[in-house]
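Structure in, sequence out. Go:
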């Protein structure tokens, strides 16, 4: 810009001419104007390109099988509602009939069953609450303002009840656009047909999603789905909920599903971090083992002489039977919290009496990253590695630390 100012000054200043007369260099001025116009045109084109890119589809391309599943579920759910209408044309002298907003509810409960907006409480509660709000508005507000205030009241009531359901706004608007039958039915309109048909649609969605392999209703934070992840998440349900509220996503995804996504992301990151290293590639293979009938005194001698923290137990066929930790040995020798050893009891104990069951064993082709939570957060010191039921190695924290150090040395060398 300073260079352009200097050019304009040179072009327009009378002192720039030899005789002090005005000299207007038209070609240079036209070139500068052309450059400025070109610059502004390019900026405008980029801005328009970004604008139209934001208008493009935001959803990823749907899988063909999922489109068939969702559309088939909508047909089944609304078909059930149609059967109810034909079977019971009147309920408490209230005529039954399909409602257009049920089509929007079908989109949610069958196409996006994991959305908080599609859950049973949101669907049934949202539609019923909206119908109640619409009736209340129609009974108190003059006609011209009824539709707008009915929808506003429905949204207000749904959000207070934590039952936000977009078709509920359509229920309120539909009632306000044709108020005569709604006012005649009164608040019963919220139960029939709104409540009955919405409940039937939700029941159909529960059954259909279960048959087709989808989880509906979705997982609630109190269930152990988030906490059972092998990969360490490190966030409580309250912290996950705070994240959703901070980014205004509470209406789009549930706490449990967010935890599952984050855990899966951490698992992928762990795979990248360890470059798909498996347990079998870094496990300790030269093992000390004992048979199930070995006396506990012999086991204590092995722990003292070898300075180990765990001792696998294998049977005569080499099958993994269990594992003994130092804490297991101490707990077996100390009874009722007493610090005194009991020789009579100690002589009768064997490895099978103090060992832990082989439930914690993992296959040798399991990626190392999936064990981070068990070794770091759950306090596990060693993990048995098996192949077809036979013990082939032990994976310890020391093996993980060695892998980390090897990766750090490789990065320094590079």
């Amino acid at each position: 810009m300073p260079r352009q100012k200097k050019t304009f000054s040179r072009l327009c200043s009378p002192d720039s001419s030899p005789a002090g007369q005005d000299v207007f260099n038209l070609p240079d001025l036209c070139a500068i104007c052309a450059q400025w116009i070109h610059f502004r045109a390019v900026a405008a084109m980029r801005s328009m390109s970004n604008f139209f890119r934001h208008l493009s589809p935001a959803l990823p391309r749907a899988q063909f099988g999922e489109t068939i599943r969702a559309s088939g579920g909508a047909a089944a759910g609304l078909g059930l509602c149609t059967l109810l209408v034909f079977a019971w044309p009147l309920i408490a002298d209230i005529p039954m009939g399909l409602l257009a907003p049920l089509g929007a509810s079908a989109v949610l409960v069958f196409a996006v069953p994991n959305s908080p907006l599609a859950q049973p409480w949101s669907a049934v509660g949202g539609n019923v609450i909206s119908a109640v709000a619409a009736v209340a508005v129609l009974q108190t507000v003059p006609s011209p303002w009824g539709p707008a205030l009915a929808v506003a009241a429905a949204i207000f009531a749904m959000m207070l009840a934590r039952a936000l359901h977009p078709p509920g706004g359509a229920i309120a608007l539909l009632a306000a656009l044709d108020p005569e039958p709604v006012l005649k039915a009164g608040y019963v309109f919220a139960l029939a047909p709104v409540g009955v048909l919405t409940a039937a649609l939700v029941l159909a969605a529960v059954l259909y999603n279960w048959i087709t392999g989808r989880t509906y209703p979705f997982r609630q934070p109190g269930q152990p789905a988030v906490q059972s992840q092998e990969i360490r998440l490190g966030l409580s349900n309250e912290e996950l909920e705070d994240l959703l509220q901070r980014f205004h996503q509470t209406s789009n995804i549930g706490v449990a599903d967010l935890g599952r996504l984050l855990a899966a992301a951490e698992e992928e990151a762990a795979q990248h971090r360890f470059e798909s290293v498996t347990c079998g590639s870094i496990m300790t293979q030269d093992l000390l083992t004992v048979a199930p009938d070995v006396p506990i005194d012999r086991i204590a001698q092995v722990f003292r002489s070898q300075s180990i923290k765990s001792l696998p137990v294998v049977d005569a066929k080499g099958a993994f039977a269990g594992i003994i930790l130092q804490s297991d040995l101490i707990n077996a020798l100390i009874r009722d919290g007493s610090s005194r050893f009991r020789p009579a009891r100690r002589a009768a104990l064997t490895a099978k009496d103090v060992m832990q069951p082989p439930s914690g064993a993992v296959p040798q082709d399991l990626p190392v990253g999936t064990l981070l939570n068990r070794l770091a957060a759950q306090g596990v010191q060693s993990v048995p590695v098996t192949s077809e039921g036979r013990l082939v190695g032990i994976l310890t924290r020391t093996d993980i630390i060695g892998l980390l150090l090897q990766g750090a040395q490789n990065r320094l060398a590079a």
